[in-house]
Amino acid sequence: MYTYGLADVPLPEEVLSCIRKTLRGGEGVLVYSPPAQGKTTVLRYLGRALSSGKDALRTVIADTREELAPSGFLQELSVDVLVGYPKAQAIAIATAFMNPEVIICDEIGSDDDVSAICEAQNCGVPLVASAHGDSVEALMRRPSLLALHKVSSFGLYLGVRISKNGFDCSMHSRKEVEEILEDGRTVDDNA
């Protein structure tokens, strides 16, 4: 568990390093929390962090509702932004025509999203996406997210929550989520 101030960089370097390693390994990252707990803020930060610096990745942001890349937010970065497209369509366009190393999108869950994410994965493009859920168990009860887990779309599950000291993060690898599913046990993401 990592705690940091809201005014600080949204994710500690060790969390960002784990995210980069997961993406470079060809697996995606699913950021989750209940509503209004910082998922979109984390995705904005990752749009900047992943597309800049010496380890920059070619990044495409599928910004359906113009929340992830507000005007001027990503200036001077090597980021392509698809604004206003339905997520599945934006993911398909990015995969087919933009040669991304990562695609970032918010609030996945529809069957169309699953199909587009699987197609991107089959083309070697991992996603950083978000979904509503208060635990990995809650995520795995959603058929669309369970289907993405079963095809190894996500190698890292990152829970985020706003606390009085900033953000709390919990990270679970795909293997840990598999063990949770097999054992039928629960994990306290607030610990």
Question: Which key phrases capture this entry?
Answer:
single chain; 7 helices; 25% strand; alpha/beta; 8 strands; eight-stranded mixed β-sheet; disordered N terminus; 191 residues
Poorly predicted regions: 1-8
Question: What's the total number of strands?
Answer: 8
> Could you give the order of the helices and strands?
EHEHEEHEHEHHEEH
Strand order of the largest sheet: 1-8-7-2-6-5-3-4
Tell me the number of helical segments per DSSP (H or I, 4 or more residues long). Answer: 7
Q: State the end-to-end distance.
A: 7 Å
Q: Determine the fraction of residues in helical runs and give it as a percent range.
A: 25-40%
Strand content: 15-25%
Task: Describe the protein in words.
The protein has 7 helices and 8 strands. It has an 8-stranded mixed sheet, sandwiched between helices. Strand 5, helix 4 and strand 6 form a beta-alpha-beta unit. Helix 3 runs parallel beside helix 4 and helix 4 runs parallel beside helix 6. The protein starts with a strand and ends in an 8-residue tail after the last helix.
Topology of helices and strands:
Layout: E1 2-4, H1 13-24, E2 28-33, H2 39-50, E3 59-63, E4 79-83, H3 87-97, E5 102-105, H4 111-122, E6 127-132, H5 136-140, H6 143-150, E7 154-163, E8 166-173, H7 174-183
Parallel strand pairs: 2-6, 2-7, 3-4, 3-5, 5-6
Antiparallel strand pairs: 1-8, 7-8
Helix pairs in contact: 3-4, 4-6
